[in-house]
Amino acid sequence: MNKKLILQIRSLYSLLFAVSLSLSSVAAFAQPAPPRITITMADVPMERVIDAIEKQSSYLFAIDTNVNISQKVSVSCTDASVETALTQMVKGTDVAYRIDASNVVLSAVRKEVSAQPRFVSGKVLDAQGNPVVGAAVIVKGTTVGMSTGADGDYLLQISPSAGNAVLVVNYLGFRPVEVTVGNRTQIDFTLHEESQAVDAVVVTALGIKRSEKALSYNAQQVSSEDISIVKDVNLMNSLNGKIAGAVINSSASGIGGATRVVLRGLKSIISSNNALYVVDGIPLFNNNNGEIKSEFESQPRGEGLTDLNPDDIETFTVLKDAAAAAIYGSRAANGVVIITTKKGRYNQHPLLSANVSHTFILQPLLPERIGGEGRGGGPPGRKPSVACSMSTRNSIPRSSTRTRTSPSDSYRYPEGYALGKPYDYFWNEGNGADMTVYQDSLNPFYNNSTDLMAYYLRPAHATNANIQVRGGAEGIAYSVGLGFYDEAGTLRGTGNRRFSAFSNLTFKPAHHLYGNFRFYLACTDNNRSRKGVDAFNPAPTAYSTLPDFLFTSTVLPGPGTPYFGELTRRYESTREKNDSYKLRTSFDLTYEIADGLALKSGVAVDYLQNNQNVFLPKEVNEYGKTYSSGTIARHLMVLNENLLTYRRTLGGSHHADLLLGFSVQQDEMNNNTGKALGAASNTIHYAPWYSQVYDAEARLDLKDYYSDYEKKTMVGLFGRLNYNYRERYYAGFTLRRDASSTFGEDVRWGWFPSYFVGWTFTEEPFMQALKPWLNYGKLRFSQGRTGRIFEYPYLAQGELDQGAPYLGHPTVLPEWWAGVSNSGLTWEKTTEYDAGLDLGLLDNRIGLTFDYYLKRTRGLLYNPPTPGTHTGFLAPWRNMYGIDNEGVELEVKGELVRGRTWQWNLSFNVSRNRNRLAKSLNGRDFQNTAARFANTLSVIGLPLYGIYAFDDRGIYGRRSDVPSYYEDGVKKYLRGEGSAYYRAGDRIITDVDGNGQIYNYGTLAEDRIYIGSPLPQFQGGISTDLTWKGLDVTVLFNFVCRKWVLDAARGASLGTYLALNPADMARPYLVESLDGLFWEHPGDGAPYPANRMENGLYNFATNLASNAQRISYLKLQAVTVGYTLPEAVRKATGFGARIFISGENLFTLTDYRGGDPETVDPYTGVDNYNAYPLSRRFTIGLTLNF
Questions:
Q1: What is the rounded CA–CA span in Å between residue 473 and residue 683?
Q2: SS3 936
Q3: Mean pLDDT over residues 506-528, rounded?
């Protein structure tokens, strides 16, 4: 770790320590005033009084299992103490209460045997060894109990004859623990987060918390510990394999890039398929989403989640079906990921935690390759290209005579030597190729075996540090944190550095009035390497992609030579700086109008600014001048949301809640970008001068400028009604109506309804006999509709471009490609059906969730080419296609060991999604016209983007094997493009259309066939965590089964083509050996065709069926081993500590012949070997708790 980095971390921790001391002092001197209670309730269930007391005070209730909170009670008090309200509540019942710190302990009244008392003491800790403050420790069946103190300690007095007494420990969010006392006087408890119990609290849409057993739709919650296992700049990368039905792919653009998260299949062609992220109630702006428009690379506007510190997260919930997400309406077609950040508690003693970790990133593993003069005594890597060029003869001018025996023979040149023409392609004479790199075989400058990839890629490191303080006083609770993350990329010139700060403040300014204020700030510096510069594209592509394997010279001088020094100097002097600034803040107030009736209103702001500067020194720029381009991209989202909620319980059995809401969201985006050439020095990376906008001598613009501005507004009206009867029968209905300025006036509004029903069949009387092993069982069904707004805000209104000046005046023209106005463009709508089963078995040691779903998406937007030119537009947009996704998901979680010192949990999930193009407006198959999708085809009834390739069947052994036909009495052989004919040694490719020619352009000359889908048939994950005393071990696997991949790089690296330049011919071969690689004679079993220089026969094409492979893989995603220091160390030092080490991306078991299958393009399945490699990472870290 360099000195500069150490100083930065030291400065950060100084700031963090100062902030924590200030907050601790505030909390320490805060003197909470006793809460006052006003309640008037008659003949109501006790649980309603409990809810009212919790809302009006900072107390939390710990309730013994023998207490019946459904019994009717009456309370009438005004501005009274908590004790007064509690005394009235338990009057005439068999319930007793006890107040300990901020907890009220309710227990059933039971007479104790008079005897000499004895005491039991101990501590209550979480799985990491941190004290659990405020946990309720109760002697089961008695009124004896207390809450744990600041160190998690307790002391209870019990009867000496109570050897069979049982201690029960309860704390919200953790599994209750029961232990028989016996003869022990000291008992310590370790609590584990609620993972299997069916009454866990889940954060659902709009941030509303619900008991998991009350849900009748699919909502999967992930713990904060699961998120923090993998220390990645993008938290979604740590969840790969943990969420059933979620496809998570790391970005090919490297650190800081977008991560693709697709829930339950692809549902759009040109819009994002990523889930909606909602952080503390604010929908995140996520411009890129890892989508197809930028070749799976990140953009300057950034990925919303890369700005979020994973250590700040408290809860993480995934809503996958329409009933769960429908309240978000037109934003929820792809599912919703709800994230809440950590919060403090009222009257909570200040808790300070700090952690730091350092990650060692190994140099990525690369494919086997041969280049230059060979390596390790192997054959010269350039030998095949030399041999190929020497065996190829150039034709002489058309005026001379040439002879050809047949279409299958090579050209002969009987008079070529006499006319002084070259013998072959190797020599630099006449029309021959410029082959200096190969011809000068005695010059050491051209005789090397340089592996530039070993230079481009390097080992790297990452540092993560953060500190958090949580606490509260009467009427106020706070949580603040600061974070720092710094990672150097394994690709030279790349890196990511992030500073973050957050604050959550909860307060009660007045009686029946509650509020929240949240603040999050992140500053990120993301440096990336580039292969090209486009100053006028606000979202330029080609970030952080590897230098192309197929165009990396291997014969030029390497390290230690002046040439290599100049080459690397130019590479490293090309700079790109990307700074982003993220501000997210929200404020809301809730007023309790009456019992169960509340009004909430809030405003949220999400602001993102990206600053980009690209600099090229004059030696690199083609014009011999320095180049500087700058871009400032801004996005501002303002959201106002208003909610009216009402909850009512009738007769103790009927529970209903109603929500009505209104929201307005406005998004503004603007970009300013410019370029300048010709600075006085390479040290000037910007353009700090006026004028000098044109170089008359070179006829070159020295400066230019571009700007744009976009704005869109959405209005939503929504409501939801939920009902349950005795937590046995559930039903709910949601209705949302959204309007967007993106659409035409007649189709601007859209309806998005949903409903759900559920039946907890284990609550039926006839199921009670099965309770010893079947503890919980629920059937649920839901149906709903969600929508999507296309990303272009003015598409329906038509788009105009600046035209060329006419008679000196500026002009405006319709955008030729797709700018036609179409006021009928409307929502992409998805209707989803979901049926599920939830089970809890064997004392809830085993939890099982099964879902079947069907999603039908219609009205997908696309711009197919228009036939002819009479419309004046090339490809107008239309609601063209329909996609179906049908699948099943299975998740099983088990507590294999549930003991006092041993805990062992195992979870498994698997999903199967069948995606298909279900509908086409013109009844035709669909092929995306973007170059990236050239080798894909979407066939009606089959999955999107299937691999489309030539059907090759080996190599022709003899000329007689080549198909032939007669035309006008002349025998002709199968040919490729132009006049290239197939012969012995060429690849056998099926002439699918039977026209005597192998071709792949045009509808009448198409010989490719549909191979298969790049989408997996099955995928899932396996995770296990083991805890023994202070030691914890977590292991995570993820797997993918049966997906098609097209290995487009290996075979293409071997071919030698006419008109290749010297740099192309010096590229490496992506094979382990050249022995027996090329066909030479019949029966030699060579895997590749003859080493001949020809065009148009597809001998070394990328889109061949033989290059396609149906693969599966199992990856060890992460292993973490941690140790929490013993309690004796905590007492001696005053703080707790946990140390851990982890490894990521440790190994992959696969049948794939190429590289890492996880880096393959997830849409097309094409592997060009230029994705950012996934390296092995090893982390060591320390967590301290005060």
A1: 55
A2: strand
A3: 87
